[in-house]
Fold this sequence. Notes:
By secondary structure, this protein is mainly α. The chain has four helices and two strands; from the N terminus they run αααββα.
Amino acid sequence: MARxxxxxxxxxxxxxxxxxHLIHRSSKKEISKVPSLSEKWEIHxxxxxxxxxxxxxxxxxxxxxxxxYRDFGLxxxxxxxxxxxxxxxxxxxxxx
Length: 96
């Protein structure tokens, strides 16, 4: 069972993600539409000024921003642990 502090932290991340969801989505669309590089940097600066935990790419199970596998919704090290424990059907493990 997870500690209460981790559960509350996850709830806070989820609230932040919902709060800034429209800003993230509209800024991403703006970046793709704007032709000049200086305007893209300006919009990118706005995105970076948002809270870190408001990014939707963070995994909700581990909070990792990188090394995520979309098919499983897990980070790399958690995926490896689950494959070695035979919890993911169809996934083959490799050890070197």
